[in-house]
Known about the structure:
Number of strands: 2
Amino acid sequence: MRTLATLISTVALLATLSGSAVACGPYNDDWAGSDKAAHFGVSLALGVGTSRLSDDTWTAFGLALVPGVAKELYDGTRDCNRFSWKDMVWNAAGAYVGVRTGNWLLGPSGVSYRMAF
């Protein structure tokens, strides 16, 4: 009886430990996934901010991409997650739009866009 209890508890423990390895299921990464808007929005805000740090568009673009690259590298080290090139495309699009918007709205001497009434 004691052997049966030990066998059942051992099997239960092994099933619990091995369950975490397959609990993730298939990896789904759609182009229009729920997190893509967040990648775009955060990179856009960073792009606007970095457009003020550098007059060079490519430098500002690169600076805006640094947090997105760091996050994807971190995701690549996590269980049930991986580096996503689709997320990086959305990061790059947001950073580009943000830098261009920052350059358009904010000139070298401050706000350059004025609305005519």
